[in-house]
Write a structure and sequence with these properties.
With about 100 residues, the chain is of the alpha/beta class. The chain contains four helices and five strands; from the N terminus they run ββαβαβααβ.
Length: about 100
């Protein structure tokens, strides 16, 4: 799967996404774009968008989107690190157009 990581998610998350091609928005030159434009650009080029922006569902019209969106409940690096297997499992089970909120503790 091709995964786009939002700028609000710590960059080292890519090393946990084993078996997938993961890029950060900054890495591909899209760091300046807000979520609406970022999703529009990613649509059709990426399979999954990972963000920690819990308001994305309310700020963007997600109807008709093909890209899957995985929302992490935090962007705290240590919490993400200790939940890396849970995040990888969510990525592996997500389907096109899914919107999944993943609680991390």
């Amino acid at each position: 799967m091709k995964i786009l990581i939002d700028e609000c998610v710590p960059r080292p998350i890519v090393k946990f996404l084993i078996g997938h091609t993961a890029k950060t928005a900054q890495e591909i030159g899209w760091g300046a774009y807000k979520n609406g434009e970022l999703l529009r650009l990613a649509e059709g080029e990426y399979d999954v968008f990972i963000t920690a922006d819990k308001n994305i569902r309310y700020q963007q019209n997600l109807d008709g989107r093909k890209i899957a969106i995985l929302v992490l409940s935090t962007n705290h690096w240590e919490t993400i690190r200790i939940n890396s297997e849970k995040i990888l499992a969510a990525v592996q089970s997500i389907a096109p157009a899914d919107f999944v909120e993943l609680p991390l503790i």
